Amino acid sequence: MLLPATLIFFITINSCFASSKNLIKLNEESWQDLLKGEWMVEFHAPWCPACKDLQKAWNSFAEWSKDLNIKVAEVDVTINPGLSGRFLVTALPTIYHVKDGVFRQYTGARDKNDFISHIEEKKWSLQDPIPNYKHPNSPQMTVVAWFFKLSMYVRDKHNYLVEDVGIPAWASYSLFAGITLALGCVLGFFIVCIIDRVFPTAVQPDKKVKKDFKGKEKKKK
User: Fold this and answer.
1) How many domains are there within the chain?
2) Containing structural domain, residue 182
3) One digit per residue, pLDDT tens: the chain, 221 residues?
4) Which of 15, 80, 99, 182 is most buried when burial is the number of CB atoms within 10 A of its CB?
5) Could you tell me if 97 and 44 lie in one domain?
6) 27: which DSSP letter?
7) Could you confirm whether 48 is annotated as catalytic?
8) Which of 104, 137, 170 is the last residue of a domain?
9) Quick check: is 51 catalytic?
C-alpha cells in the first residue's frame, strides 16, 4: 500500500509543476515575437522561491491561452541575462502584458483566475504602458541589454579564474580592472580622433604677425 501511495504522490507533484505544452519559452533570439499579437510573459529564475510558488498557476494559465486567443510565455533570466536588462527586471517574478508591441507591467494578483480575468475583462487597458524610453526594442535598452550580457560574461570568467584555475580573487579583479582601463584609454583615443575629424579645430592666426602688420601700416602712413 505504501508504494502505490508514494507513486501517486510523486505523480501528482510532477503534474502540478510540469510545464504546460502551451507555454512558450522565449530567449535572446526569439523575444521579438512578443511584438506581434497579444502575450503574457513571465520573467523568472530557478533559484527564486516566489517563482516556484507561481509556477503551478502560470502553467494552468497557459492551458487557457488558446481559449483566450493569446500566447503565454516565460523567460529564464539566468539563461538570458540580456533580456533581464532589456526589460529592466528588478524583481522576480516580473510579468508583462503585451498587445501589438505595447508593454504593460502586470501588478495584479498572481492566480490563474486573476490572469484570465485580466485578459477577458481587458483590465490591462486601465494601466499605462511603459514609456518609450523603456521600450525593450528601443536603442537605449538594446545598449543596456549588451551591458547586462557583458557583466554576466565577466562574472563567469571571474568565477572560472578563481574556482577552476585557482587565481586569487584580488588578482582576478586586478586583471579585469587593467583590461577595463586599457579599453577605456583606447576608446577615448578613438573618440577624440573621430571628433577631431568631424569637427576640425580652426587655425588661429598668429597675434604677433597681426601686430607687426599693423605696425608696418602705421609707419607707411
Assistant:
1) 2
2) 140-198
3) 444 444 333 344 444 445 678 999 999 999 999 999 999 999 999 999 999 999 999 999 999 999 999 999 999 999 998 999 999 999 999 999 999 999 999 999 999 999 999 999 999 999 999 999 999 999 988 888 787 777 777 766 767 777 777 788 887 778 778 877 887 888 788 788 888 788 877 655 555 555 555 555 555 55
4) 80
5) yes
6) -
7) yes
8) 137
9) yes
